[in-house]
Amino acid sequence: MELPFAESYRIKMVENIKKSTREEREQWIKEAKYNLFFLKSDQVFIDLLTDSGTGAMSDQQWSAMMLGDESYAGARSYYNMKNAIKEILGFDYFLPTHQGRAAENVLYSTIIKEGDVLPGNSHFDTTKGHIEFRRAVALDCTIDEAADTQLEIPFKGNVDLKKLEKALQETPREKIPCVILTVTNNTAGGQPVSMENVRGVSALCKKYNVLLQMDSARFAENAYFIKTREKGYENKTVKEIVKEMFSYADIMTMSSKKDAIVNMGGFVAFKSEELWKNCQKFCIMNEGFVTYGGMSGRDMNALAVGLDEGTEFDYLETRIKQVEYLGSKLDEYGIPYQRPAGGHAIFVDAKQVLPNVPKEEFIAQTLGIELYLEAGIRGVEVGALLADRDPVTRENRYPKLELLRLAIPRRTYTNNHMDVIAVALKNVYDRRESITKGYKIIHEEPIMRHFTVELEAIL
Ligand SMILES: *Cc1c(COP(=O)(O)O)cnc(C)c1O
User: Fold this and answer.
1) Residue ranges of domains in the chain, CATH in brackets
2) pTM higher than 0.85
């Protein structure tokens, strides 16, 4: 008999989590203005709000923290991080930042001007925020198939090379600071980009003489998918695949809270010494001196170890199989989600789960609230709230997809937790006919409103 699959680690330290009653949750979510970000973590039983900075570090990472060098300039920890970035990712230059969006800030403060166009595959929300804040345009060139949640294709995060080439042809060269390739494509459902597509994007960038930036938060998961799904890569190691992916990039921005498995940290890395130097002033102004940026020495040490562990096949297999496991449970109950299961999350197709809630009443948010009420599980809306208003017309944007993202923190929950999540969703799904009303906005900010929006239940 073939041995069943088991995790590639064991547990050395635990953190208690609390259950609650439905009555308590009804009260708490109302007090939180129906915004899941406003809940206290103690009011949540299983927290799937994000996989960002919520993972469990290893004993190796914790011990590296004790060896942190907190020197202001030229710390050993900086060089540990520098070596890991060079050896594992292949970049010579980098600036440490406190997280991924800070890396975007340092980079975009340098290269974006008003009226610019940045084509890419479904820009991440903070990326889009940084672009639109500078009155530039984030042009989405993702393949159309990404919007069909039921279509099973291996690389649903790909860029449509025709769309990209059209954009590159139609936009004056000086208006394109870079093309942004997001691996994996978070907004389209944690879907990977194939090496063939990376190569295609890179070829177009070279043809039109434009820099290629990789938004790399989940680069290791992307490499795992290339290894397990793309012909010709099955016998390469994840580390070899990662090296090849980044060989095509000029710049990478990184939220280390994802695939470097740390609680805080990020960086922007460069192939060009000149661009690195040009970006330094914004690092010094906004983050810190160039050898620590937004990070302490101990955090840079943990990050260096995390980059190594995060690109090991056994770790990635454990992680991605857990997400797949949750997907298979949802299959059992007939609950539709973005197929195939993504690398870091399951994206439940809220329009199909709650067919009776009008889009103006925020379908995916309504599902998120229902799931919280059902079992104290916190997901996050990826729908009309996140899509925000059009920066010019100020009209609400209603995206094709209304998704509830259930992000799985790394090395944190067991498959028993996955079972609870699946059954809770099933219970909501079973009473879908009776859920007909959603929520309305009573307060919102002009940009990135989903974090702080206040809602009221429509009665
Ligand atoms: C998380 C993330 C970011 C932003 O990083 P933070 O660390 O949250 O600031 C940017 N791009 C992608 C694809 C991400 O997943």
Assistant:
1) 22-51+313-457 (3.90.1150.10), 59-309 (3.40.640.10)
2) yes
